[in-house]
Specification:
Layout lengths: L3 H20 L2 H18 L7 H9 L4 H49 L8
Helix pairs in contact: 1-2, 2-3, 3-4
Length: 120
């Protein structure tokens, strides 16, 4: 998950970048973009490094070639997160299946017992 403070900072900057662009204020846009870029580079390689911040940076990168490089970086950071989510989901499903199997075995054992026999 993305750090809440970083999430808020990124989306506040995104809103401000949109407003600067809407007003045609290139100087403000460049300053805000530099701030967003600093967040990304400061967090890179730390536990705060998240693909969402890189994707947001790419969204506001005016040069298409440079934006594609940043999107690639975001994607490279996203894939391990997706793999982790999938592995956790598979592990959860496996545990559910194992529990169901165990319950079915127990139920089968109980149903085959004579009524007077205690459950072991």
């Amino acid at each position: 998950m993305i750090n809440t403070k970083i999430y808020k900072a990124i989306y506040t900057l995104a809103e401000e970048l949109l407003e600067a662009d809407r007003r045609g204020n290139q100087e403000k846009f460049d300053s805000l973009y530099a701030e967003l870029n600093a967040i990304c580079t400061d967090n890179e390689g730390t536990d705060k490094d998240h693909p969402e911040q890189w994707e947001t940076l790419a969204d506001f990168t005016e040069d298409l070639d440079a934006a594609l490089v940043i999107y690639d970086k975001a994607l490279a950071k996203l894939l391990p997160l997706i793999q982790k989510i999938i592995c956790h989901r598979l592990l959860f499903l496996w545990r559910c299946y194992s529990l169901r199997q165990a319950k079915e075995k127990l139920l089968s054992k109980v149903c085959k017992m004579p009524k007077s026999q205690p459950i072991k």
